[in-house]
Amino acid sequence: MTRMHIHVGVADLDASIAFYSALFAAAPTVRKPDYAKWMLDDPRVNFAISHEHAALGIEHLGIEAESPEELQEVYARLERAQRPVLEEGCTTCCYARSEKSWIADPDGVQWEAFHTSGAETTYGNPAMAAPLNPEPIRAAP
To answer: Which has the closest alpha carbon to 64: 41, 83, 86?
Structure first.
């Protein structure tokens, strides 16, 4: 079963952790000096925030697969979408070891498809994060 992924860039990590912990009624599953992540089951989402690695606002959306086989099914969906796909492959990002690819919708909204296979001690390569569109997704004023 896949899980929705949302990554948001924040200005004040501690204030945002307090806010989202109250909103989700749960502490982060992962907490680092520049990053926090909640793996929620209701709603089923991998919700991450970071300070220093992303512009403020929604940075990208994604679909997280629970197995390599499920990831191949998601990759097939990306191909059917008939948009350019950036195959990043095995990488380290967000303190995790993952395999991933990226696609952008017709309006430039970035989507990441990935499977995480383990934890890492570093954030990874922020230059690869959200490679298809340098502008974050922002709510209308």
So the answer is: 41
8 A C-beta contact, residue 53 and residue 35: yes
Burial class from Cβ neighbours inside 10 Å (0-12, 13-18, 19+) for residue 87 reads exposed
- Separation CA 44–CA 137 (nearest Å): 21
What mean pLDDT, rounded, does the chain reach? 82
Name the region of 124 (left: φ>0; alpha: ψ -120 to 50; beta: rest). left
Q: Where are the domains of the chain?
A: 3-119
Report how far residue 16's alpha carbon sits from residue 63's, in angstroms, rounded to the nearest whole number: 23
pTM metric for this prediction = 0.70
Q: Pairing relation of β-strands 44-50 and 3-9?
A: parallel
**Which CATH number describes the domain made up of 3-119?**
3.10.180.10
